[in-house]
Amino acid sequence: MSTPAWSSHTRRPDLEAALNALAQIHHVAGDPPQVTLYELARLATDALQVERFGVWCATEDRSAIRLYFLYARSTGAVADGTILRKEDFASYFRAPDARTVCIDDVTSDPIAADLLVPYLQPLGIGALLDAPIYSDGLPSGMVCHEHVGGPRTWTDEERLFAGTVADNVSRLLEEGLRQRAEQNLRVYQRELQVLNRLEAMGRMAAGIAHDFRNLLTVVSASVELLAEEGLAPGQRSHLDNMLAAVTRGQDLAHELMHFGRDVAGRPTVQALRPFLDNLVRLSAASLGRCTVEVHQEREVSRVLIDRPELERVMLNLLNNARDAMGGSGVIRVEVTQATEDRKSAGLGRAVSIAVVDTGIGMDADTRLRVFEPFFTNKPGGTGLGLAVARQIVSRAGGTIEVESSPGVGTTMRVILPVIE
C-alpha cells in the first residue's frame, strides 16, 4: 500500500470528527465481537492513514501479549492469536509507561530493536504509534497503529488521538468484549500451565541427562579403544551393538536436556511455501524411500514463529509419517488458509499445515496420549518428539490436531495464527 510522506507539520482537520465518531461506538449485545472492533479499526486507520491496527492483550503473568484483533486497511482482513513473549522481544516490553509509545523510525529506535528484523521489516512497517489499554486501572494490553512504508513523524494531534483510541478500546472491552478477550487469554493461559509443567519436568530431566551423558562419554571412549584392538568377527558385532546403544543413549540425553526448556527464541515472519520446499529438499535423505508432495492451492498468509523450531516440528512429523508407512510411500503436506476447520476460539484467520500419511494409523487410546511426554509405540523412541512439537506450536499461539484410524493412516495438522 503506497503511503504519503508525513511530517510534524501535517494537520489532520478530520481527527476531531473521528474522535466524535469513536465516542459513539458501542458494543451491541448479541453482535460478534469483531463487528464492534472492525468499526473502530476502520475509523482509526482511516483517520491516521495507517495500514494495520492491532489490539494485543497481556497474559495474567505479564509474560506475553496475545493478538486479540488485527485489521488490515487495504484488504479489510482480520486476524488474531499470534503470541509475542517478553523474553523474545525484551526491548519492546521495556517501553516506558507513557500515554503513547511513539516510534517515528523503526530502524533507529531502541524500543523497536528486537522487533525490527523478525517482524517489522518483513511486513514493511516503518513507524509505530502504540498506546496501552487498561483494566481496573492496570495496564492490560496495547493498541498498535502500524504505518506501512518509510519513517513517519507523528504529530501531537495524532499521538493524542491514538491515546483516545486506546481509551475507547478499554471502554469497549469493559462493555462487552472483555469476556471474549479473557476467554482467548484463558485458552493460552492453560497452554502456559502445561508448558510450565513441562519446563519443571524438563529441568529435572536435564539434570539427570547431564550426568547420564557424562557416563556415556566414558563408555563411548572405552568402546572406541576396544574397537582399535584386533577382534574376532563375533566380537566385532557385539562391539557394534554397544556403539549403537551408546549412540541411542546420547540422542536420548540430548532430547532430555532440551525438553521443556523455555528459552528465548527468534520468532520471525515466515512465508510457508518456500520454507516447506526448502525443508523437503533438505530432509529427502533422511526419509528413505518416502517422497513428499507439497500441495497448496492458493497463496496463504504468513505466520510468526521461530524458524528452526518450526523446522524441528515439521521434521518430527515427517519422520513419524515415514515410520508409520514402513519407510516407503508418499507423504502429502497440505497447506491451506484454515478458517472453517480451525477449532480455537479466535476471531480471525489461521494457516493449516497438514502432514498426511497412509500408514498403520492409531487407535483411540494412542490418539489421546500421543502428546504425552515419554509415551511412544516406536521401538527405541523417546516419546518426546510430539511433546516438544506441541510445546513449540503452543508458544507461537497455535495448536496441533491429530486425526487417525488404524489401518487407514494419520493426519497431523499444525494450525498457526496469521500475522497479516
Q: Segments where pLDDT lies below 50 for 5+ residues?
A: 1-10, 341-347
Helix content: 40-55%
Overall CATH architecture of the largest domain = 2-Layer Sandwich
CATH topology description of the largest domain: Beta-Lactamase
Radius of gyration: 25 Å
SSE-based structural type: alpha+beta
**Biggest sheet features:** 7 strands, antiparallel
Q: Provide the number of structural domains.
A: 2
DSSP summary, beta strand count: 14
Portion in beta strands:
15-25%
Q: Strand-and-helix sequence, N→C?
A: HHEEEEHEHEEHHEHEEHEEHHEE
Assigned CATH superfamily of the largest domain: GAF domain
Q: Helical stretch count?
A: 10
Question: Under the CATH scheme, which class of the largest domain?
Answer: Alpha Beta
Question: Overall mean pLDDT score?
Answer: 82
* Net shape: elongated
How far the N terminus sits from the C terminus, by CA atoms, comes to 13 Å
Please explain how this structure is put together.
- This protein is of the alpha+beta class.
- The chain folds into two domains: 15-191, Beta-Lactamase; 265-420, Histidine kinase-like ATPase, C-terminal domain (Heat Shock Protein 90, 2-Layer Sandwich).
- It has ten helices and 14 strands.
- The strands form three sheets. Strands 1, 2, 3, 4, 5, 6 and 7 form a seven-stranded antiparallel β-sheet that branches. A five-stranded mixed β-sheet has the order 9-11-12-14-13.
- Strand 6 and strand 7 (138-148) form a beta hairpin.
- The longest helix is centred in the middle third of the chain and has 72 residues, at 156-227.
- The protein is elongated.
- The protein starts with 14 loop residues before the first helix and ends with a strand.
